[in-house]
Amino acid sequence: MTTTPAARISPDLLEPSGSRGRRRRGGLFMPRRATNSRLLAGWARHAITIAVLVVMLYPVVWMIDASFKPDAQIGSTLLPFQGPFTLENYADGLNPTSTLNFGLYFFNSFVLAILAVIGNVVACTLTGYAFARLNFPFKKTLFAVLMGTLLLPYQVTIVPQYILFNELGWLNTYLPLVVPKFLATDAFFVFLTVQFIRGLPRELDEAARLDGAGDWGIFRRIIVPLLGPAIATTAMFTFIATWNDFLGPRLYLSNTALYTVPQGLVQFVDSTGQSSIGTLFAMATLSITPLVGFFLASQRLLTQGIATTGLK
Amino acid sequence: MSQLVADLVSVENDEGAAPGGRAIPPRSAAQKRRRRKETLSAYAFLSPWLLGLLAIVLGPMLASLYLSFTRYDLIGTPEFIGLDNYVRMLFEDPRFYRTVGVTAMYTLISVPAILIFSLLLAMFLNRGIRFLGIYRALFYLPSLLGGSVAIAVLWLQVFGSEGIFNAVLALVGIDGPSWIGSPSYALLTVIALSVWTFGSTMVIFLAGLRQIPDTYYEAASLDGASKFRQFLSITLPHLTPVIFFNGLLTIVNALQSFTPAYVISGGTGQPADSLLLYTVYLYLRGFVDFQMGYASALAWGLLLALAAITALLFWSTRFWVFYGEDS
């Protein structure tokens, strides 16, 4: 149950970095001189870009700011970073009540996301290696099936999956959310890995084979150590998708002790409405912190990953 | 960028196959043995995926096809009722047409808006602007956050009657309604949320723009072609595979969007079913009313629609997608 449906992909991560250089169009023929009008045009360009960004990001900044204000002050001003500052919303939010326990939800979300990451990384690299390097009967057919499942909307399988997991007695466990990851059902990441391995030189495999390595040895010793970028991309997008996933936990987890953060937020809105909005924003802000943290830590990888894979 | 397209269009050209791999029959016993060994180990590597494919993807897919011809509420056994679910869907369920209408409106507005907006910004940013990396990253940030409940909850506030959107409107003297509470505007707020996440699409366009060789533009400006002419004759044709890719992706995403509409409508699709996206309706029928048979029929309706749209898009590529002189 991915929040991000599985249709995306593309070319190889190994695009020669030379072609990524910044373009200076016309530079060869028209040496640039910093004339006044050109300088002005440059500034205008930055001004427009920044204006669009401010409009886009304003709501998020406003929310973060509101999470540090007493409820009575929220909405009193549109300009952030004014008025009293308090951490009370965070303390209130993390303080367990009879209906809500955000500390636990954050822990649950982390456990779930980490398990999903491990599952996807292990299963998708194994599958990707077979498709990229080995020959076997029905390979073309199976690869076609893999590509077909990429575009399969999750709604088609959601009802029988629910029935299946219900029959297995897996409701109110993390199994329905984790086991599919260990079975490489996120076809997108399999495809990503296949593409990446196809870009690795085969000479390495052949040299290892001459040295007596089997398929497992080649996978383990040659391929996996070179898969860094593909594994990092898989891990990061799996973490983000699992962390944000609401529908999956909503379906399978009704025991509040197992709730994830998105469920906690919805529960909070349902139970308190707009009455303690500061606390709600504090928890919402806290819930996007890992995403923003990931984003800052690996900005390069993320935007390159998206450019080459098209994943959201 | 066209690798996905190429792979989807012709999976037969699977370059993973070793040169001459299966075409030449094995000559010696040793070769045969080696091939058998390779097959065995390949299927060992594939076993998790194969199990998942059968048990979690294909099996449930067929099960859902069967269930769509039954009445089933999780208790007892499914009761076969033939085409009743489909008849009900098409002729007896006004909410079905409502959800199709809402989903179509959502898709038809958000997809072009995302594509146009992200292409314009990508072209705007592509002209050797300084700090491109930082700008690109900041534009991308909402794509990470857009599907989260946190942002949906924020949207509830922003477009509520006391929200900051109305506070901004009040600055220019407009007294705005509760946008999320209004049947005419609620869907627009969810569309706004999806357009807000245009950054991922823009990043793909940026990567596509960089693949176009500079020399084309240099030659064109030597020949005196205007900027607009260059856009029409160089940029647009070279970008068509990326436009196709992004278009397909955005449509598929739009048809599967769930969380924002669910949270903003309080899990109901209200007001007046204006947020009743197809996914939300399917959820309500399947997991609130426990009409598993009817929900399965809805799911197959979606699958058929998506298959038709995808097939139409792929078919249309021959008329407008340009794969370069060399292919």
Automatic annotation (TrEMBL), chain A:
InterPro entries: MetI-like (IPR000515), MetI-like_sf (IPR035906)
Keyword terms of this UniProt record: Cell membrane, Membrane, Transmembrane, Transmembrane helix, Transport
Domain annotation ABC transmembrane type-1: ranges: 106-298
Any one Pfam family match given in the protein's UniProt record, by short name: BPD_transp_1
Chain ranges passing through the membrane: 39-61, 105-131, 143-163, 183-201, 222-243, 277-297
Region (Disordered): 1-27
Name of the protein described by the UniProt record: Sugar ABC transporter permease
Organism: Amnibacterium flavum
Protein family: Belongs to the binding-protein-dependent transport system permease family.
Membrane-topology annotation of the record: Multi-pass membrane protein
Lineage of source species: Bacteria, Bacillati, Actinomycetota, Actinomycetes, Micrococcales
Subcellular location: Cell membrane
Automatic annotation (TrEMBL), chain B:
Residue stretches making up the ABC transmembrane type-1 domain: 100-315
UniProt record similarity statement: Belongs to the binding-protein-dependent transport system permease family.
Cellular component GO terms, alphabetical: plasma membrane
Protein name, per record: ABC transporter permease
Keyword Transmembrane helix listed: yes
Record localization: Cell membrane
PROSITE patterns the UniProt entry points to: ABC_TM1
Membrane topology: Multi-pass membrane protein
Record has Glycoprotein as a keyword: no
A Gene Ontology BP annotation from the UniProt entry: transmembrane transport
Spans annotated as Disordered: 13-32
Keyword terms, alphabetized: Cell membrane, Membrane, Transmembrane, Transmembrane helix, Transport
Residue ranges crossing the lipid bilayer per the database entry: 42-67, 104-125, 137-156, 185-209, 230-255, 261-284, 296-315
